[in-house]
Design brief:
By secondary structure, the protein is of the alpha+beta class. It contains 15 helices and 16 strands. The chain binds adenosine-5'-triphosphate and magnesium ion.
Length: 434
């Protein structure tokens, strides 16, 4: 349907698209992924000639649309585009926004355009908003109208450029669900997205763009689970993992929660689960870890297999297990390799700083280690509240009253499927799974 050969585009002498080659077949749902600034939007804009390429060919149904004699407006109508910002006309109602181009450009009668627009509003679930103005709609609803407006032109392919990235996290789901349903209808789509779980679920193929080329392409399984080339591998590893170096003094909880929420939304985690993750992280950081260490590294990983969330933390100093309420400092907990951890989910390897990696290696096999299974976990969490709390000074917990700490421990430990604590060679590491 679309064949792109040796496509090139520079801005002010800086090459953005160096040599893009791609084939898009009818019915393909292609996710275009890659680091920021690698030319994904430029590629899309070249496809429907919002940008003029410097060289190469774009054939649509056998016709080169870069040929000076090509029917550019006609070609453009075949390619609908949905942008990050919905660009609805503010003074027109929802139904008028959708009817505008079919009436003006396709010369449809108002009745015909109206009937079709109502049908499309049904598809995006907004029939009751037909006569509302855009400003009366939420961002997610406006984007759904923008999708209906694009479909009203009967495009052969729909290009989505990050359709959810301008939305509040709570509205991402409704828009993705509309796109997911569209994908099932067999319409050809190219989607630039940072929602990786979505890309994985919805696409027939994935293009990974980097260095001005389509650096690797394959099925979602190939690209996300078994990427062949180094840059793809490093990208995929990075998107499955959120890493921070945090300082207790400068800790901005609001910013941190925001990052975690956005990350979790991109991984298609359910809102209730996101709330739980945010709550556990808040208790873990503010009430458990920052009282014992000023600086720490934290990695958040989501298992691509079962959606289990793994939170790894690492800090300098050999402390005792901050979650084991009855454990005294420097007393190594007995090693009990629990079955829960042995059968634990496959979490992508972290990309933390050298310190994290080297210290983790250094600790392997040499340090004291405690591993609890899920059932043990829940009990010890409750016991932490019931039993006497440890000597605060002895484990370095300060400025928090014992009730707060006990509650924080209970919230964290009750939420864990399993946890591990290790300490050796000047570092301590706590890993929990939710
Ligand atoms: N009209 C323009 N004029 C000058 N430079 C531009 C223009 N459009 C894009 N660029 C530059 O081209 C490069 C690629 O931009 P593009 O928007 O295509 O990247 P992207 O992969 O879509 O990134 P993101 O994921 O951040 O949206 C960037 O360095 C950008 O600054
Ligand atoms: Mg872009």
């Amino acid at each position: 349907m679309i064949t792109v050969k040796h496509l090139k585009k520079s801005f002010n002498g800086v090459p953005v698209l160096r040599d893009v080659n791609a084939v898009i077949n009818k019915g393909d749902v292609i996710s275009l992924i890659g680091p920021s600034g690698t030319g994904k939007s430029t590629f899309m804009r070249c496809l429907n000639l919002l940008e003029t390429p410097d060289g190469g060919e774009i054939e649509v149904n056998g016709k080169n649309i870069l040929d000076p004699k090509a029917d550019v407006p006609g070609m453009r109508m075949k390619m609908g585009m949905v942008f990050q910002h919905f660009n609805l006309f503010p003074h027109l109602t929802v139904i008028e926004n959708i009817m505008l181009a079919p009436v003006n450009l396709l010369k449809q009668s108002k009745e015909e355009a109206y009937g079709h627009a109502m049908e499309l509003l049904g598809i995006v679930g907004l029939t009751d908003k037909a006569n509302s103005l855009p400003e009366e709609l939420s961002g997610g609803q406006q984007q759904r109208v923008a999708i209906a407006r694009t479909l009203a032109m009967g495009p052969e392919i729909v290009l989505f450029d990050e359709p959810t990235s301008a939305l509040d996290p709570t509205m991402v789901g409704e828009v993705l669900s509309v796109i997911r349903n569209l994908a099932k209808t067999g319409i050809t789509m190219l989607i630039v997205t940072h929602e990786m779980r979505f890309a994985k679920d919805v696409s027939t193929r994935v293009f990974y763009m980097d260095e001005g080329v389509i650096y690797e392409e394959g099925t979602p399984e190939q690209i996300f689970e078994n990427p062949q080339r180094p840059r793809t591998r490093s990208f995929v590893r990075r998107i499955n993992m959120l890493c921070f170096e945090l300082s207790g003094k400068e800790f901005d909880l609001y910013h941190f929660n925001n990052e975690v929420e956005n990350f979790a939304v991109r991984q298609l985690i359910r809102p209730e689960r996101i709330n739980k993750i945010v709550l556990v992280l808040e208790e873990l950081l503010k009430n458990i870890l920052f009282p014992i260490t000023e600086k720490l590294q934290i990695e958040l990983g989501i298992s691509s297999e079962d959606g289990t969330v793994e939170i790894r933390t690492l800090w300098e100093g050999e402390t005792s297990d901050p979650l084991a309420a009855t454990t005294m400092p420097t007393t190594a907990p007995s090693a009990t390799a629990g079955p829960a951890s042995a059968a634990g989910p496959q979490i992508p390897e972290g990309i933390g700083s050298k310190a994290m990696e080297s210290s983790a290696q250094a600790m392997e096999g040499t340090g004291s280690k405690s591993t609890d299974g899920a059932s043990v976990q829940a009990d010890s969490g409750l016991n932490a509240l019931d039993s006497e709390l440890p000597d605060m000074d002895s484990i370095g917990l300060r400025a928090l009253d014992s009730e707060e700490i006990g509650l924080a421990r209970m919230i964290v430990t009750k939420s864990c499927l399993s946890r591990e604590f290790e300490t050796a060679n000047g570092y301590s590491a706590l890993t929990i799974r939710l």
